[in-house]
């Protein structure tokens, strides 16, 4: 039997023990609870009969983490508590706890159901940024955050730092204690339940298949299109996230910054070369972009690198080659127009260079991949780096995969809608289609390593020009990238960059269409 486990993280003196005592007193007083503490604060744990406690020092945690896991498993097997509460050390990386509780020997006995990040209102803007990678890894791995009020601050809590690190985190304050308790006992579907959910969905699909078929809706055709595009796109998404993860884990963050030229022209040439040689995903290029700007790299070169790297890297070229059946013209046009648009967008920064565009607060720009820097002491461990890379790739695949599924679903439906919309516009149809496809690319936020397969699925309904606009503009700027930029740059700069990228891509692709689309036939 697996023991349900709640993990409470946060900095020292943030109120973790206070929260545990309150939960025991008001919610868990009738349950046998095992509390695991990896640090000792000012407040002592309640001394109740049904509460068992194991305390491990920070030095022992650093030297013998796996022996601690064995001791916990022995205790669980002997006493079989109803619930285990883990008070994690605020200065330790969260990945160490994952390695301890999610390993093969612990998985059959421990079920981590909730991870709570504990903080006080003053610490949100002052202490957490100073704590570095350990604090950000804990926030990124948390399901919810509980904010302890202070005597000096009142009103609405500013949790922007938490959302920047973990967009899916749910934030509660002392004023919302009842909601927080409901969240703690919120039902989480187990694998057996997921099987029933999938079975129910399959039965509903069969029912809808017959029902909608009577009304002339080709459900079978839509399903075949969806599965066909997904099976072609998924391998390229997997290759892309693996290579991107390997680069982010094995290459030091400042490696590219130290080699970036300081002159504008040579910087742009280097940006194009680096964009080709470093197959990072579009969301991973944005943290690098901010680092380049803070280091003093000329803004035109930094913008060029951010916009061009998701368009011309080898994984994107390979997926485009596969999607369009080896059509080298499509590959050349996508890369060529992508480089041209990125360079022009970068050069526009020389015209009335924006000033004061960086946000002042020291909040890192987090990609959808989260913070995956190695904990201190593991830098030279090959196994630790490889494990980090696999974890990074896994999380990134599922984080980006939802956009891929949404994009495939929308493109499947639009294959019957777009042609009529294009034909209805007569001579203006191709221009409307170009605007529509660029807008669709912005909304869908597809990963650049798999968007070519989605575009190819609509090739029978559209001319080459709108598809080129979809493939060039989408990786440069979409809703996901804009949201990430807003976490590190002022809104005026982000809006200017997004509008500039849209206008430049539209004009360049429109001129390309006027020239006959390069003789491309799909």
Please tag this protein with its features.
Rossmann fold, seven-stranded parallel sheet, 2 domains, single chain, globular, CobW/HypB/UreG_nucleotide-bd, P-loop_NTPase, alpha/beta, 522 residues
Give your account of this protein's structure.
The structure is a single chain. By secondary structure, the protein is α/β, with parallel strands linked by helices. Helix 15 packs across helix 21 (464-476) and helix 17 crosses helix 23. The protein has two domains: 3-184, P-loop containing nucleotide triphosphate hydrolases (Rossmann fold, 3-Layer(aba) Sandwich); 201-519, no CATH class. Strand 6, helix 8 (160-165) and strand 7 (170-173) form a beta-alpha-beta unit. It starts with a strand and ends in an 8-residue tail after the last helix. Mean pLDDT is 79; it is low at 361-372, 374-380 and 423-427. The chain is built from 23 helices and seven strands. The protein has a seven-stranded parallel sheet with strand order 3-2-4-1-5-6-7. The longest helix has 43 residues, at 382-424. Keywords: Cell membrane, Membrane, Transmembrane, Transmembrane helix. It is a multi-pass membrane protein. InterPro entries: CobW/HypB/UreG_nucleotide-bd (IPR003495), DUF318 (IPR005524), P-loop_NTPase (IPR027417), UPF0718 (IPR052923).
List the helices and strands and how they pair.
Layout lengths: L2 E7 L6 H11 L6 E5 L13 E5 L2 H6 L1 H15 L3 E5 L6 H8 L8 E11 H5 L1 H5 L1 H8 L3 E5 L11 H6 L4 E4 L3 H8 L6 H24 L4 H32 L4 H5 L4 H14 L4 H14 L3 H14 L1 H10 L4 H20 L34 H43 L4 H16 L6 H7 L6 H13 L2 H8 L4 H24 L8
Parallel strand pairs: 1-4, 1-5, 2-3, 2-4, 5-6, 6-7
């Amino acid at each position: 039997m697996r023991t349900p486990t709640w993990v409470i993280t946060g900095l020292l003196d943030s109120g973790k023990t206070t929260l545990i005592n309150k939960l025991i007193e008001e919610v868990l007083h009738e349950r046998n609870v095992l509390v695991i503490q990896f640090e000792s604060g000012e407040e002592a744990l309640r001394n109740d009969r049904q509460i068992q406690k194991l305390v491990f020092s920070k030095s022992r945690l650093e030297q013998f983490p796996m022996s601690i896991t064995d001791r916990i498993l022995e205790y669980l097997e002997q006493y079989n508590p109803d619930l285990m509460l883990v008070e994690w050390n605020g200065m330790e990386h969260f990945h160490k706890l994952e390695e301890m509780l999610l390993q093969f020997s612990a998985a059959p006995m421990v079920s981590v159901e909730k991870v709570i990040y504990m903080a006080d209102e003053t610490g949100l803007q002052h202490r957490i940024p100073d704590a570095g990678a350990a604090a950000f890894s804990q926030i990124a791995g948390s399901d919810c955050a509980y904010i302890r009020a202070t005597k000096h601050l009142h009103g609405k809590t500013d949790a922007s730092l938490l959302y920047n690190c973990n967009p899916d985190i749910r934030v509660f304050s002392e004023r919302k204690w009842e909601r927080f308790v409901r969240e703690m006992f919120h039902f989480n579907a187990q694998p057996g339940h997921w099987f029933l959910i999938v079975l129910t969905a399959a039965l509903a699909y069969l029912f809808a298949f017959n029902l909608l078929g009577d009304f002339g809706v080709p459900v079978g055709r839509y399903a075949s299109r969806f599965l066909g595009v997904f099976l072609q796109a998924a391998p390229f998404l997997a290759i892309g996230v693996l290579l991107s993860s390997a680069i982010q884990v094995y290459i030091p963050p400042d490696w590219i910054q130290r080699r970036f030229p300081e002159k504008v022209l040579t910087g742009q040439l280097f940006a194009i070369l680096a964009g080709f040689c470093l197959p990072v995903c579009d969301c991973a290029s944005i943290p690098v972009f901010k680092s380049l700007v803070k280091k003093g790299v000329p803004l035109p070169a930094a913008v060029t690198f951010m916009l061009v790297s998701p368009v011309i890297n080898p994984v994107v070229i390979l997926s485009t080659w596969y999607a369009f059946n080896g059509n080298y013209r499509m590959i050349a046009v996508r890369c060529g127009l992508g480089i041209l648009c990125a360079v022009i967008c970068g050069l526009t920064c020389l015209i009335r260079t924006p000033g004061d565009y960086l946000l002042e607060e020291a909040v890192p720009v987090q990609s959808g991949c989260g913070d995956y820097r190695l904990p201190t002491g593991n830098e030279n461990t090959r196994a630790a780096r490889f494990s980090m890379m696999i974890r990074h790739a896994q999380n990134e695949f599922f984080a980006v995969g939802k956009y891929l599924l949404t994009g495939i679903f929308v493109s499947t439906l639009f294959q019957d809608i777009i042609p009529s919309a294009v034909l209805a516009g007569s001579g203006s149809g191709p221009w409307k289609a170009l605007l529509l496809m660029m807008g669709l690319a912005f909304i869908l936020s597809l990963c650049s390593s798999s968007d070519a397969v989605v575009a190819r699925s609509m090739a029978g309904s559209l001319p080459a020009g709108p598809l080129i606009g979809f493939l060039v503009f989408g990786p440069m700027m979409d809703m996901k990238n804009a949201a990430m930029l807003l976490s590190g740059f002022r809104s005026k700069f982000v809006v200017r960059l997004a509008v500039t990228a849209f206008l430049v891509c539209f004009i360049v692709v429109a001129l390309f269409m006027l020239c006959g689309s390069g003789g491309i036939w799909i």
